[in-house]
């Protein structure tokens, strides 16, 4: 949530921020009018309370002086003032609620030098890593979804059978590889000073609002117990779309000490998103799914340190791909593609050599986003009441929050299955993962199960 003072003093920049991010469901001028009326009512209430206090003092003096008639008139005036104050406060509370709801719909204003654009086509590539000495891949790399089914590593049909489209079973050596990836990532980030968390999977609406998912993206979330527009007993719980939600809200409405900062947490969790799987060609395979695992990195820092921490956080997420030897690129997200609560955003995209796409890399294959590394400044902190006290005797201030995936597991798994694929359709296990897989060097797959598998992939 942006600061109301900032809105009053920089309405043009806020309007521009809405325009750049394509937010057209909020009228900034109307919000300013609500704010002005609310401030007038608050001032009127203060004046009325001041007058009532003076009248109360006068009543005592008049009674002491025996001026009963004047005292009765003062008492009547005090009662009138009380009724007027109640009316003013009721109207001010009503406006406060409307104002709060409206402020929740105003996006964070992008940083001044953010690339301007309408969508992902206008994002700016900053650099690439790992392409100069990349390994040779087969001439015809088999896409991960075909290879996964051939080696009985990924079962999309049975996943859809039990949960619907966008869900899958990850089997055998692929499941083992994903477990290895998660342990490897957590170990890398421990070296970087992160403290591990296992967060709650259900989160309440206040938490979703605190990080900016609600009210903007309520239709993308999975509500526990039924459809989004149906109440479910007294529960107010949603399946988390990212561990960013519970971890950021962990210190909600608390005041941290300056000595606590920076706070760096990492959390492994499953994540659930309805919006996944609605993007044409990416509905096939393990790229855009409704349930996926990832390691999330969340930082709480002093305001003056957030821009430097953003660059450091980017490097911390990149380190995972560097150690895996997976080529990738870093892009800076343009205003039209930037997230609602974001001030500045980088995406890390790993290279998957199969599946040439019309908008894919100039070297063939395609880019898969595995991390969005974001600086929110005080936007989330204002929504969630995240503050710190610079000195014990000083007033509390809003801190800054940042996060990034460290990184999304399914797409890294996809990249490994394609980039480390061999001519015989086995997959070489990256060297850094072998200790987490009992020294296994190559993934060869398993035999399909069931009558339908006869003659369709069994090795015997």
Question: If you had to describe this structure to a student in words, what would you say it looks like?
Answer:
- This protein is an alpha+beta fold and 460 residues long.
- The chain folds into two domains: 4-104, Orthogonal Bundle (Helix Hairpins), CATH 1.10.287.40; 120-453, BirA Bifunctional Protein, domain 2.
- The protein has twelve helices and 18 strands.
- It has helices at residues 4-9, 11-20, 28-64, 68-104, 144-150, 156-163, 172-191, 205-211, 244-249, 306-324, 379-384, 409-419, and strands at 124-129, 154-155, 169-170, 195-197, 202-203, 222-223, 238-239, 254-257, 263-272, 291-301, 328-332, 344-352, 366-377, 386-389, 397-398, 400-408, 427-428, 442-443.
- The strands form five sheets. Strands 1-11-12-13-16-10-9-4 form an eight-stranded mixed beta sheet. It has a three-stranded antiparallel beta sheet with strand order 5-7-6.
- A hairpin with a 7-residue loop joins strand 14 and strand 15.
- Helix 3 (28-64) runs antiparallel to helix 4 (68-104), helix 5 crosses helix 12 and helix 7 crosses helix 10.
- It is elongated, with a radius of gyration of 28 Å.
